[in-house]
Design brief:
heterodimer, A: alpha+beta, two-stranded antiparallel ribbon, 36% helix, B: Immunoglobulin-like, 1 helix
Chain lengths: 201, 134
């Protein structure tokens, strides 16, 4: 009896550990597919970007902002910067970061460039994208990202200001254009994303 | 001289009749764009006070706003005032309440300063010097 007890005492933590490791190593399910999207966008340098074909072969982390969003979108941007910094620290290379604008009327390539420059962002593996409303909507629809106009008003000087209510989301896309996980972008858990990236490598 | 020493001691704190403002900062912004300002209001008095207006020298307009989440969507809305209960701290923080600064008169980058007036019903006007940081 004493021997059996010792066996259980030894086996229990071993089995638990194995189960935990297996759970951690489980493959990420495919929850969407953007590989068949074929739209033309512009990046912050006004260079043409074909979505999704230009990103085939790369793991992509993508989210959605507009540059006149003063509160949530800077949080998302900062989370992407933290993700980029952590990827560098862990020497994980070849990951593409994308922020797509909800607001092509105001977010011209120049506006996106200024937004990035003001924040001194490293754009070596990071692109800000904009395009026609139709093309942006095609992408957002496939990623189950929604938006609609929020409060708008004119300032005393007659400048129109408006805000956009939008889904708070980031997605992880594998090398074949399949969405493998999604996260709340404004409170992004960088380590969770990196753990997921490792499962795709 | 005495005031200079007091100012040095207080550092980043802005105090007026029991209301203190700490850790005020403004997000970077290009000219013509909007930014948000965040800070903590500490009410050391035994009465509530109400923040009801704000003005910033390098923005056309300043309003009290809050961000909210509903059905997985993030939005912002204007609020007319914020009541800070007695003996408490109220936080204006990213993803929550903030001062919306509209139509920047110039480019604001890290390290710049923005002069902001916060108006309270009891404490009156507090002059804040908020740093620009990301």
């Amino acid at each position: 009896m004493k021997k059996d007890f010792r066996l259980n005492e030894t086996l229990f933590p071993v089995i638990s550990t194995v189960l935990l490791i297996l759970a951690g190593c489980r493959k990420l399910p495919v929850i969407g597919d953007v590989s068949d999207i074929d739209v033309s966008l512009l990046n912050q340098n006004s260079a043409k970007v074909s979505f999704f074909s230009d990103f085939k072969g790369k793991i992509v982390v993508m989210s959605f902002i507009y540059t006149n969003c003063p509160d949530i979108c800077p949080l998302i941007t900062n989370n992407f910067r933290r993700l980029q910094d952590t990827l560098k620290l862990k020497n994980i290379r070849g990951i593409k970061l994308i922020l797509l604008s909800f607001d092509p009327n105001r977010d011209t390539p120049g506006a996106l460039k200024e937004y990035a420059d003001t924040r001194e962002l490293d754009l070596s593996n990071w692109e800000f994208l904009t395009g026609s409303r139709t093309d942006i909507d095609t992408i957002l629809s496939k990623m189950d990202v929604r938006y609609f106009p929020g409060d708008s008003s004119y300032t005393p000087e007659g400048k129109l200001t408006y805000y956009i209510t939008h889904t708070d989301k980031a997605v992880l896309i594998d090398k074949w254009g399949r969405i493998r996980n999604s996260y709340r972008a404004s409170t992004l858990n960088v380590n969770e994303v990196i753990d997921d990236i490792r499962k795709l490598e | 001289m005495i005031w200079f020493v007091i100012a040095l001691i207080l550092g980043h704190q802005h105090i007026n009749r029991g209301i203190e403002i700490e850790n005020a900062f403004v997000r970077p912004a290009k000219m013509g764009m909007t930014a948000a300002m965040y800070f903590q209001v500490i009410n050391r008095t035994d009465k509530p006070d109400t923040l009801y207006a704000a003005y910033a020298d390098v923005f056309e307009l300043a309003q009290i706003h809050e961000s909210y989440m509903k059905n997985g969507m993030m939005g912002m809305r204007r609020v007319k005032f914020v009541v800070v209960p007695p003996k408490s701290t109220f936080e204006f923080k990213p993803g929550g309440y903030h001062i919306m600064l509209i139509n920047a008169r110039k480019n604001l980058v890290k390290g710049d300063k923005v002069n902001v007036e916060l108006w309270f019903k009891r404490a009156g006007k507090l002059d804040i010097n908020a740093k620009v940081q990301d």
